[in-house]
Design goal:
The structure is a single chain. The protein is an alpha/beta fold and 196 residues long. The chain has a single domain (2-195), classed as Pyruvate-ferredoxin Oxidoreductase, domain 3 (3-Layer(aba) Sandwich), CATH 3.40.920.10. 41% of the residues lie in helices and 19% in strands. The chain is built from 6 helices and 6 strands, in the order βαββββαβαααα. The protein has helices spanning 14-27, 107-110, 123-131, 137-148, 153-163, 166-195, and strands at 2-9, 31-37, 46-54, 69-72, 92-96, 118-121. It has a 6-stranded mixed beta sheet with strand order 2-3-1-4-5-6. α4 (137-148) packs parallel to α6 (166-195). It is globular, with a radius of gyration of 15 Å.
């Protein structure tokens, strides 16, 4: 079973992101579940959502305490909440930011993990261009598909179109595609740098 924890703030589409991720996995014939951590749901408050993906029925219902992947929708949470708590040693981290892990003040943490599984993507800026609002969730799912290989970009596009319609859906698909390409380039550049 692969477990994902998504951290963001109220109003950023954290719960919708987890739901779309589970739809994408389901589209590929996997079992999936998505659910939020309920607490203060007001706009701007820290919000956490979870997604589990497995090849067989998922019976667990508790929050994800030891995630295989983290998606951080709002980098201001990095020093307000222990977002990295429980992250597995082989874990993936995707942060919505144009700044490096060092610039974000988490470079020391990043050194304990596999560099090719850590990536930043400017998801809010990509969303602003394609959707007209800085809602990073769909773009981050595209980036997650690229970094993890767990779901395909086609499955992400299907999930977005399942959740939204018309121009909103197509804008989010374009944002996810751009983020997928961005992360793919980042990973290629990293592998070239490591080879040199």
């Amino acid at each position: 079973m692969f477990q994902i924890r998504i951290h963001g703030r109220g109003g950023q589409g954290v719960v919708t992101g987890a739901e779309m991720l589970s739809i994408a996995a389901f589209e590929q014939g996997r079992h999936a579940q998505a659910f939020p951590s309920f607490g203060s749901e007001r706009t701007g408050a820290p919000v956490v959502a979870f997604c589990r993906i497995a090849d067989r029925e998922i019976r667990l219902r508790e929050p994800v305490m030891a995630p295989d992947a983290l998606i951080i929708q709002d980098p201001t949470l990095l020093h307000q909440v222990d977002v990295f708590q429980g992250l597995q040693p082989e874990g993936y981290v995707l942060i919505n930011s144009t700044r490096s892990f060092d610039e974000l003040g988490v470079g020391e943490f990043a050194q304990r993990f596999r560099r090719e599984r850590l990536c930043n993507v400017p998801a809010s800026e990509i969303a602003q261009r394609h959707v007209g609002r800085p809602l990073p969730n769909a773009a981050l799912l595209g980036g997650f598909a690229a970094i993890s290989g767990l779901i395909t970009l086609d499955a992400v596009a299907h999930a977005i179109r399942d959740k939204f319609a018309g121009k909103v859906a197509e804008g989010n698909v374009a944002a996810a595609t751009e983020a997928f390409d961005y992360v793919t380039r980042e990973m290629e550049e990293l592998s070239h740098a490591q080879a040199d």
